[in-house]
Design goal:
2 copies of one chain form a homodimer.
Chain A lengths: L9 E5 L3 H12 L3 E5 L3 H9 L3 E2 L3 H5 L4 E4 L4 H9 L13 E4 L5 H13 L3 E4 L2 E2 L1 H6 L3 E6 L2 H14 E8 L4 H29 L4 H9 L6 H11 L9 H18 L4 H18 L21
Parallel strand pairs in A: 1-2, 1-4, 2-3, 4-5, 5-6, 8-9
Antiparallel strand pairs in A: 7-8
Helix pairs in contact in A: 8-10, 8-11, 8-12, 9-10, 11-12
Chain lengths: 302, 302
């Protein structure tokens, strides 16, 4: 049964959260036969309505797929869908490619590559950047590493889901390492945007004015411009959650420990996200890290 | 003698470093009679060659000036030129405006305003952003606060030196407070850019590649794009020095202490600039903060 159709590319997306759903929709829009799996029945409904194929279990989802994209929250989930009870590693056709779209550590990516090789599978670590909106319009940035033969197989997939592919090396793990560098900065920039806006409010400045001036000054960052509006609107509905940066800065700091390398600023930002999560804001938008700064009155939801 | 010409606006620039010289040149280009003062004779020469008027001492520099711009490194220097031995506070014509272009604390700006009022002088705190290049072409961003009558007097000056004026309030101190928020972010972004690039090098990634990818990703910041090229070129000739951020993040943290407000990320970045200064890099470009990350080989000067 482990067989794929040589004529038509079939792709599976495992994990239909906001990022996975966007990727799946982009594939469908490109005319690629796309199968999907998620534990959430509502996500499966949405996917089916968009024209996706829903199978009864993980193995049936991937049985004819040349490319299997993992869009899961973390390494544990990836291990579980591949090698756990009812896992799909055995069902994926020999020679197919597992595309690791999740942000994990580079060392996990390398270990996963070895396990997949033992199953006759190729792997590309391809963490994505851009958020749910870019995912839904097929304009993600992807930092990908792996062997050239695997890249060849994934060509049409990348074309469907990404505006920009950065091929960062032939060796699995490099993609995750670059993503980690990005997440170090992204996390520090969100936490320091919150710290700066909080200080401005404490000092009695109008936060809208501060936002406008800093956006046009040397203190600006991509994250400052993207996240501070959530604070100004008092809108902490999760575009990306506090707990994602608890995880991603955790990956950064674990890598630092592994390499014996000091990362004091990343560590300090991580503590702020941990504080926010401990205070009960883990599932809110990551801009809610500003709520750990005490004694200020934040803008209310309009 | 304390008198100004009602017909023609005369302006003094005190401090002809890279920022002050740029401001002075922009004033001269606009046809404004500009006097200058600096302790460095080479700076005075350059200023005179550009068409500026050089007087024999501070008092003679300002005696006919309607606007006196302070472009000095810190509050101590401002106090010294105004109220120290041979200081100029007495010599500035009544009703003239002192424009505080330096980055100081808001509480210093407020105290200075009170002292200048006692001398019959107005004040605007007008810290600038944009760096030496923008200063020299008259395109600074200025965050200015003070009474409207003072703004009216300074109109032609702002027009000559700035691309954008942000009037942040009628009360002296607000300009410095906004600048402080900007400097918190600018300092954290430089230090975290260094930390991220250092981690990438430690992990064996090509730093040019990392720079290109992050510049186009959510981890980017104004400072990342501006300062990382110095690291890639191994060029630490000071565009802006490490010790400037030792000072500016120091101002941020002092303000936090005054307001009893925690700023853990700014504090962590400040420690990195202090480490760099302690290691002997205080007068190098602020991108030299990367030199405190041990065990990596930085790109050499080409």
């Amino acid at each position: 049964m482990n067989d794929f159709n040589e004529e038509t590319l079939e792709v599976a997306v495992i994990g239909l959260g906001s990022m996975g759903m966007g990727v799946a929709r982009s594939l469908l829009r490109s005319g690629i036969t796309t199968r999907g799996f998620d534990l959430n029945p509502e996500a499966l409904d949405e996917f089916a309505k968009a024209g996706g194929d829903v199978a009864s279990d993980l193995a049936d989802t991937v049985r004819t797929c040349r490319v299997v994209i993992l869009m899961l929250v973390n390494a544990e989930q990836c291990d579980s869908v591949l090698f756990g009870e009812g896992g799909m590693a055995e069902a994926i056709p020999q020679g197919s490619v597992v595309l690791l779209g999740s942000t994990t550590s580079a060392s996990y990516a390398k270990a996963l590559d070895r396990k997949l090789q033992a199953h006759g599978l190729k792997m590309i670590d391809a963490p994505v950047s851009g958020g749910a909106v870019k995912a839904s319009v097929g304009e993600l940035s992807i930092m990908a590493s792996g062997e050239p033969a695997a890249f060849d197989i994934c060509g049409p997939v990348f074309e469907a889901i990404a505006a920009k592919i950065y091929p960062v090396g032939d060796e699995v793990g490099a993609g995750e390492t670059v993503k980690m560098i990005n997440q170090l900065l992204a996390g520090v920039h969100i936490a320091s945007a919150a710290e700066a806006m909080a200080l401005g409010m404490k000092a009695g400045l109008d936060p809208d004015m501060v936002f406008e001036i800093i956006s046009n000054s040397a203190g600006s960052s991509w994250m400052f411009q993207n996240r501070v509006p959530h604070i100004l609107q008092g809108d902490y509905s999760p575009k990306s959650m506090v707990d994602i940066f608890v995880k991603d800065l955790g990956i950064v700091l674990d890598a630092g420990k592994e390499m014996k390398f000091p990362l004091p600023i990343a560590a300090s930002a991580h503590q702020q996200f941990l504080s926010a999560s401990a205070a009960g804001y883990g599932k809110e938008d990551d801009a809610a890290v500003i709520k750990v700064y005490p004694g200020i009155e934040l803008p209310k939801k309009q």
